[in-house]
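The data are passed on as follows:
___
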Amino acid sequence: QVQLVESGGGLVQAGGSLRLSCAASGRTFSSYSMGWFRQAPGKEREFVAAISRSGGTTYRADSVKGRFTISRDNAKNTVYLQMNSLKPEDTAVYYCAADLTATRSDASYWGQGTQVTVSS
């Protein structure tokens, strides 16, 4: 069993930055790939970024390339999402996830989500 708790969401102006954190507990954190997904009102959940178990490989959706960075600190059992140059279309509930599928379309474990709102 893995528990994930997100924090760091909030309201930010377009062009601003925000860093999300996800604290994990349960089974060994370093055993899992980690990632972030988001879901805007009326929209399907979409993949944002992922990081491999060792942290040596990262992935990101085309829509956030050059703007978002995912990282992890296995000693702290925490994964981060640094979001820069935020746009109104980034507004969504952001979910931390563990043990992503190979296609990064789903995951085994999910956090409760944290709201990110970007004003224009």
Summary: DSSP finds no helices and eleven strands in the chain.
